[in-house]
Amino acid sequence: MHARLVRSAAALAVAAAGTLTWVPTASAEPSEPTPSASAETPAPDAGSVEITTKDTAGDALPGAVFLLLDSAGQEAGRGTTDAQGKLTFSDLAPGVYRLKETASGSPLHEVVADQDVIVTPGAPTRLTITDPFKAAKVLLQAKDDKTGKLLPGATVNIGTGTSTLLTLTTGAKGTASGELPMSSRKAQFWVKEIKAPAGYDLYKPTKTFTAAPGDPVTVTVTNAKTTTTLNPEPSGKPTHTPTGTPAGPGKPNSGTGRAAPSASDSDTPEPDSSTIAATPDGDSTPKTPTGSLAHTGTDATPWLFGGAAALIAAGGGALAVARRSRTDSHTEDSTGS
Prior knowledge:
By secondary structure, this protein is of the alpha+beta class. The chain has helices at 2-17, 301-336; strands at residues 47-55, 65-69, 75-80, 86-92, 95-103, 115-119, 124-131, 136-144, 155-160, 163-169, 175-180, 187-195, 207-211, 216-223, 276-278, 284-286.
């Protein structure tokens, strides 16, 4: 309705002027707005990675070299820590990266293992990298304290303070080796033998030594041979029970050459110690001299010789008396005739 009125008014104006002229009329349809630059979607903000490198003692590590790889394995950055041990990778697109330490920058330190890093939009990702000290290399030797011969089978503990850090046992060649972890640029350690080689006494003293990261250290323990002492049996006491059973009162034991005491010999004095002889097997039994009189303990030899001499003397005297008697009788017979 409104459009018709507009057209009628325009026609009346033309008729009034007496001239036919075309005048464009405004469209009643709404127009589309033109997009502006401010309506475009903004690009995502970049992120960064900030690294601080130090050792286990807390000291900064300058000169450490790092490599940053993106999710496709392409290099996204490379750098070296400054005098304060710091390094920053900036203008990184958000995502997951792989961080590699290729050098510690110090002969005393080891590099750390690779790790993943997540970069977030518009914010730094801060990392603290702690490089461990290199381990000291320990060589253990066990030796004979007299000959210096290397001994297998010795076990020692090595540690610091109250902590045991390393246990080593010497092998067939009498040596053993291992790595001793370090937590500072120089430290003192103790050595304690807990098992001696076979046939040797335990090395009881505790030794100490000082080591630095990466240093080769030789530790030596010496062992003395175990001495065995034989305990002799007490002398003067029989160690074996005499064998043989008495055959009976007044009868000698078979095979012994000794007279068996009778039941009535309870008052017989003990044999003299000079007549006690120790047999080879340690048996100390009274030894009766050959020819002794039974039950008396008296040696019969002097009596036998004395008796024989007396008999010979008596026989000679009797013979002399007999001869003299015969001579006197013959003389008397001669005189009487």
